[in-house]
Amino acid sequence: MSAFFYLPKKAKFENQDDDEQVILLLRRHPITNLPWILLVISLALAPTLLNFFPELSILPGRFQLVTVVLWYLFTTAVFIQGALTWFFNVNIITNRRIVDVDFYTLIYREISDARLDNIQEITYKVGGLLGTFFHFGNVEIQTAGALPNFNFENVPNPAQVTNILQDLQRNKGNI
Amino acid sequence: MIFELASIWLLVKVFYLVAFFVYVVFAAVTVKQTYLMTKTLEIGLESLVRTLSWAHFIFAVAVLVLAFVLL
After folding, report:
1. Which CA distances in Å does B47 have to A1, A162, B38, B40, B51?
2. Are the C-beta atoms of A148 and A100 separated by less than 8 Å?
3. Cα separation of B22 and B66, whole Å?
4. Contact A106 B33 (CB under 8 A)
5. Predicted confidence pLDDT, tens digits, chain A (175 residues)
6. Residue A154 and residue A96 share a domain
7. Is A134 within the bounds of a domain?
8. Do B37 and A103 touch (CB under 8 A)?
9. Which helix (H) or strand (E) holds A51?
10. Which of A84, A109, A125 marks a domain boundary?
């Protein structure tokens, strides 16, 4: 469940070439999940803290029970979406290219890639209290011509990510 | 008066069942989504993620049936 995988053994992605090797697999730093985790904890504790919603007492007993079940289902939905979005939204660096995999909603995904030799400039930014304390930040990658630029958001060790990318560029994909 | 009260609770029951049905649809979309995600990215946890999504879907259907019986 890490967010920084260097030379992952089992990582493969769609459209990966046979002789292409994944060098780095990145996710957002786990601490960036804090907002939705706190939301899930609040939602889960709410029925207990609010004494099982006294307002619901106007409902018959079976409706009260079903309301609480519905509430926990909603909580589960928030948890599932938060966890899946974090786990599968990844940035991949291979010995040939960079790949950005984004799942925006339940059914919408965007996968973009750029070859290493199309990368023109790499900059990283670390800011904010959490970013400085937990060592995560953004790596901005400018590509040549009309190709889209890439932004690896809130990834751990952005300086190391930049170094690895620069080394790969210099050594033509060799580590 | 009694008839009106009964129809209100019937309306509430329908509302609840629709809400549970929407959740079953969400669970089904989640199963589809996990298949799409695990096809896009393989990191060795594919079968676990897919199994959990199916378990979640079955749970959602079970809760819908339970609500139908209870209400």
Report:
1. 16, 33, 9, 14, 6
2. no
3. 15
4. yes
5. 689 989 998 899 998 999 999 999 999 999 999 999 999 999 999 888 877 667 777 778 788 889 889 999 999 999 999 999 999 999 999 999 999 999 887 678 889 999 999 999 999 999 889 999 999 999 999 998 777 899 999 999 999 999 999 999 988 777 7
6. yes
7. yes
8. yes
9. none
10. A84
Q: How many domains does chain A have?
A: 2
Angle at A83 between CA A81 and CA A84, to 5 degrees: 65
CA distance B39 to chain A (A): 7
A contacts of B68 (beta carbons < 8 Å): none
Q: Does the residue A175 lie in any domain?
A: no
In a shared domain, residues A69 and A102: no
Domain that holds residue A162: 4-28+89-170
| Shared-domain flag, residues A21 and A96 | yes
Which of B37, B43, B71 has its CB closest to that of A62?
B71
Nearest residue on chain A to B23, judged by CA atoms? A73
Return d(Cα B40, Cα B25) in angstroms, integer.
Answer: 22
- For residue B4, the distance in angstroms to the closest alpha carbon of chain A comes to 16
Could you tell me if residue A68 is inside a domain? yes
Examine the domain organization and report whether A166 and A123 are in the same domain. Answer: yes
Question: Within this chain, do residues A19 and A62 fall inside the same structural domain, yes or no?
Answer: no
Contacts of A66 (CB under 8 A, 6+ apart): B16, B67, B70, B71
The answer on A11 and A54 residing in a single domain is no
User: Is B23–A73 a contact, with Cβ atoms under 8 angstroms apart?
Assistant: yes
- Tell me the whole-structure pTM to 2 decimals: 0.87
In this structure, is the dihedral angle defined by the CA atoms of residues A117, A119, A121 and A127, taken in order, positive or negative?
negative
